Amino acid sequence: MTSAFESWVQSQECFEILRICARQVSIRAERIGVVLEDCHIAAENRDDYLSAVASDLWQFIKVNAATIAQQATTLLVSGDEAAFMAFISQKFLDNCIDERRNSNPFQSYYRKMRALLHKASEDGTIRYEAQARKGSYYAYSNRTDIVILPDSLSGADYSTWSASTIPFAKAYDSDAMLTLSRHFWDESLRAFFAEYLLPIRELVSFVCAKYPLMLTVDYQDALDDGDGEENATINLENRLVDTVAASNALDDSWKRQRPVIEADVIDTQLDAIACDCALEMTDEEQAILMQLDAGEKLEAIAASLGMKKASNVSYYQKKAYYKIHTKWSLWGPAEIKKFADVDEEEFFMFYEKVIDFCKNEKTCRDSRKGTSA
């Protein structure tokens, strides 16, 4: 089936369909805040822009034929071109979003560090904990009463903390990253005089403070699966520049990687999607989400809404979660099929936005009722 699909990709019919599909992609990309590489052409010539997007679509299909061939072929054979274009558009935009996420140095390093610490926790060496709406934490401690690092102690000036002996060229090796996590833990004990569950984002902020070149050097080659390979080290070393000169050029790149800036970017880009999600929900779905968010039990929610039993609440709850999941997929990477730990921070930011929009919508309805009365 893959070979037949690849043959179709080379046909004129394919590009004609992709030319139409390009319109859908451009509209959806603008709606969810994805900037396509050829967007600058749009202001000069719309037709040239759509042709450029169609070319990008064609290249994407060609490269990913092995993974999308089966479903794409099924849609083509059925004659449902609209469904085929919707499928290709979603896959293409998912890929664009994934690439954008992976191109963020702070976020890429954070994701890798989080995965390493989570894996290390399986043998009991490290305590790893992901908390809903808060983030991911770790500790080199078995104490049961340990608490999360207070906000008042977060965001310290890590440039004044003692540096690790790990050289920059090794900062992306798995073993070195674990060593850095231990070093940050030890330094936190000296600074705070107490054990805390440390936010992994604080750990990465510390690493960035000690290796400012991390935000100016193109290190994508070192993020591949072959951690510590000689070529990756050479690629990094070939890109090293004078530390002082690099520090003087840090302002924009550093600010863009700070968690607060990243959160602001997510705020602006997810607002529209969260609003759409809330508006697509029924009154029952919105009410149930708000009461669940307030900590109400299913039985109590059922009674307040005049439902016979908790299973009725579960029905609407699942429908609401499905709508949130569908909207979230516009932002989340393509491989995430459900609410997963790998994106818990971004997801819960989005989830809270949906809840807020539900509350605002209820407030507006209530105020309108009061006015009409």
SSE arrangement:
Elements: H1 2-9, H2 12-32, H3 46-63, H4 65-77, H5 81-102, H6 105-120, E1 127-131, E2 135-139, E3 147-148, H7 174-192, E4 196-199, H8 200-210, H9 230-239, H10 243-248, H11 251-257, H12 259-279, H13 283-293, H14 298-304, H15 310-328, H16 344-372
Parallel strand pairs: 3-4
Antiparallel strand pairs: 1-2, 2-4
Helix pairs in contact: 2-3, 2-5, 6-8, 12-15, 12-16, 13-15, 14-15
Describe what this molecule looks like in 3D.
- This protein is mainly alpha-helical and 373 residues long.
- The chain has three domains: 2-98, no CATH class; 106-252, no CATH class; 260-372, no CATH class.
- The protein has helices at 2-9, 12-32, 46-63, 65-77, 81-102, 105-120, 174-192, 200-210, 230-239, 243-248, 251-257, 259-279, 283-293, 298-304, 310-328, 344-372, and strands spanning 127-131, 135-139, 147-148, 196-199.
- The protein has a four-stranded mixed beta sheet with strand order 1-2-4-3.
- Strand 1 (127-131) and strand 2 (135-139) form a beta hairpin.
- Helix 6 packs across helix 8 (200-210).
- The longest helix is centred in the last third of the chain and has 29 residues, at 344-372.
- The model is unreliable at 216-265 and 333-342 (pLDDT under 50).
